[in-house]
Amino acid sequence: MDNFLIRLKDHIEHVKKVGSHCSTEETTKQALILPLLDILGFNPYDPTKVLAEFAADFPGVKATERVDYALYCNGQPVMFIEAKPYSSDLTNHAPQLSRYFNSSLGVTIGAITNGKEWRFFTDLINTNVMDEKPFLTIDFTKAHPEDLTQLAEFKHDNFHAEKLRFFAEENQYIQQFKTVIKKSINEVDIDFVRYVAQQANIQRQLNTKFLESIQPFVQQAVQQAISDTVVKGLSSPTIITAQPVEPKVIEEQPKATEVAPEPDFIVNPDNEKIITTKDEQDLLRIVTELFPEVELEGRDTESYYSVLYQSKTNRWLFRYDVNRKRPTIQFNVTVDDSRKTELERAGLEVQNNGQIFIEKPEHIYRMVGILRDSLEHCMNDDNFKRASSQ
């Protein structure tokens, strides 16, 4: 990491020094964009990692419409980059970037850059549809140390689609929360005054007239609290008093009884042949995190592990089978050609019977589309009324 940060800091100085001389898009690419890709571990001279002028074959694409760079990991494109000249405003990003992103299901990140500013996009709002707003913006002429650390998430040897999506979501929430907090502190609106008065347990009726009367006091209190916090943070670590070192008397402690670590699997008390593995537990955890407001339950058997909707055995989202050389997962909806294409673009292997090889629980993130279809199928009572009447 230290070497990575040193190279990034050198790159910042390079951007500041030569950026104004990059008057064309091609110069910007060669002088500013490709050097950063190299720092991130995407060797610009290796077409298995960086492919320039990437052309896709989705319906409606023009022969001349290409994305400037596609970055590859394990033989699959994972990130598209649209390049602009150094002086370009990135506010209205190129439409072909979003078109390529939306039509390439294995790609999780889109970026637009003029070499000075980088804007990174993903699909937090609608799956496989690039968001209009970036989840991360970095300006090398105004870079902060924490920005440099964030760029490490995009290194070739650290590039994981699921991890980046969580990073994007976390970053977006933090930025939104910071905006609200700054606004509340600077403006101190009535809602914020009411919250402070309630937390302070003010024994008065908190009507609008009273809240407006104490609004200046709350604003003053906020300013003083911020000032006190800053002063305390600056002063406390600087006071270091040398103390004589007392020799430590080492008392022999009785040896603690070694406690065996708890197993990461669960054995069914009624049937010892049913063992719920850590991977099965992780699958349930991930799915419940994806759909926190839906009542889901894991159900294990000797043959497979299921995730059920509302504990109903006939309404299973998927069945996970580890009783073979490679674990598989099967959904309760048909894997038609469009779904198969979506899964294969996400780097998954689909069998003719609709079962999908899943090497680790985190790969369920690549199946969010069909997972959502499966959940909607379970939630639709009509699907099961027809089944019961036949």
From TrEMBL:
- Domain of life where this protein originates: Bacteria
Domain Restriction endonuclease type I HsdR N-terminal span(s) in chain numbering: 63-124
Cite a single GO BP annotation: DNA restriction-modification system
Q: Per its record, how is this protein called by name?
A: Restriction endonuclease type I HsdR N-terminal domain-containing protein
Q: Name one GO molecular function term.
A: DNA binding
